């Protein structure tokens, strides 16, 4: 039996209401794999931002016919693109030290 512990918090009730934990966890695992393996982003700050945005994008994409979902998708796509660019800028060069966060 797989554990049902999420890595991150999904608090956009508009998107996650009505989605069971197993489905959310599946989306999270897919996004986590994509971010860490395909994009090779390992900085925890960026991984979290990108995974959460990617999960929200997936939910919105699957529900595009619902009111407000297109706006949600676009908003999280912008966020995803923003953090992906930041992460790639951070990864290139010597500023690859993890940033202390409180």
Task: Give a nutshell description of this structure.
This protein has 102 residues and is mainly α.
Q: Helices, strands, pairings?
A:
Layout (H helix, E strand, L loop, with lengths): L12 H4 L4 H18 L5 H19 L6 H23 L11
Helix pairs in contact: 2-3, 3-4
Q: Determine the structural class based on helices, strands and strand pairing.
A: mainly alpha
Strand content: under 5%
Catalogue the unreliable spans. Answer: none
Largest sheet, described in full?
A: none
Number of helices: 4
Kindly state the mean pLDDT as a whole number?
Answer: 89
Span from first to last CA? 34 Å
Count every beta strand, where a strand is a DSSP E run of 2 or more residues: 0
H and E string: HHHH
Structural write-up:
The model has no long low-confidence stretch (mean pLDDT about 90). The chain has helices at about 15, 20-40, 45-60, 70-90. With about 100 residues, it is an all-alpha fold. Helix 2 crosses helix 3 and helix 3 (about 45-60) packs antiparallel against helix 4 (about 70-90). It is globular and about 40 Å long. It has four helices and no strands.
